[in-house]
Amino acid sequence: MGKLVAVLSLVILLMPGLANANLLVNPSFETGTLASWSVDWNSVNLSVSSFNPHDGVYHATNSWDGGMYQDTAITGGQQYRLTGWAYIPAGAGGSPWGTFIGLRFLDGVGATVGDYQIDMEGLTRDQYNMADTGFVTADPTAVTARARFGTWSSSPWEPVNPTDFDHFDLTPIPEPTSLLLLGSGLVGLVGLTKKRKFNN
Question: How far is it, in rounded angstroms, from Cα 4 to Cα 14?
């Protein structure tokens, strides 16, 4: 019985961690590089800096306009949540321009089957603001989640710059059926142990 209690305790302790595991690699750029992130456009303007992190030591910085993304394999029909932080300095810039953080779902041929973008330029300046997609359900055909961030402008207009990005988190929400199966298994394990004890 003692072993069963130990196993159950371990499972209970691990479940929140499994449910809230960040799917992104190098999400806060603490490698000091942009490793695991791909350039969407204008690589020359994108780098890692230690000048203005949201937390930790490093953050991504965008000196003008440019964007990055990271693709992660997912399960269609499940819920996912993306959060991230962006810092936009004071200023008007040219028009039009914008800063965003977003989550995009792609199917097996790379077509977009869901797009959730948070535009950040209207938020309070000179501080980090959090973007949060909330819990969104991936299309059943989705096989990839793409976490995205960037600042864009239409030439020759100048965006407010530099913009900083940090602390991204892409979290899956376990399927109810998976949790039900786990719960059923634990109940069965408890029942089996009680039956053995009774027979003895």
Answer: 15
